[in-house]
Amino acid sequence: MANKSIESHFWIEGLRTIGLSLILAFGIKTFVAEARYIPSGSMEPTLQINDQLIIDKISYDFENPQRGDIVVFNPTKTLLKENYHTAFIKRIIGLPGEKVDVKNGRVYINNHPLKENYIAAKPDYQWGPVIVPPDSYVVLGDNRNNSYDSHYWGFVPRRKIIGRAIICYWPINRIAELDQKPRFLLLEK
Predict the structure, then answer these.
(1) What is the pTM of this model?
(2) Lowest CB count within 10 Å: 56, 70, 105, 141, which one?
(3) Which of 57, 77, 90, 115 is the catalytic position?
């Protein structure tokens, strides 16, 4: 009889532990952080195909996205109309209220060229000028000439941003914290 009681207690505790683990995992993924992988080369050379990242989902509850942040976001209305239903990952370039222009192989913010040391190659297209609407962002891939980004489909509303990429954890030889400070400066005219 005592054996059945111990066995019953073992199963109850096991189920409680599994249940609590599932609740915690769901809560963390929903509100704090989640893993994502890179499906395309649009963020090369910074991120490679199949890199796996941790996305911080909580910091934007306390601060606004900044230029240089690598963000994951849900498809915009335009992308949904084009039948895109999975999240995108790009770098924030233009902030609300800024004028963004791409010309002569450079990105300009409010008529000041950006110095960008992380892009694969200078953009070989012209775009803009555009004024970023309130609560929206211009996002571009680091592989400027091979990225389906804002210069094709427009702005990302703030509410669509899931979070900021903070760590590459796989493959092992690419484990690194992603720069939290923008690696470029606005230049003087």
Answers:
(1) 0.79
(2) 105
(3) 90
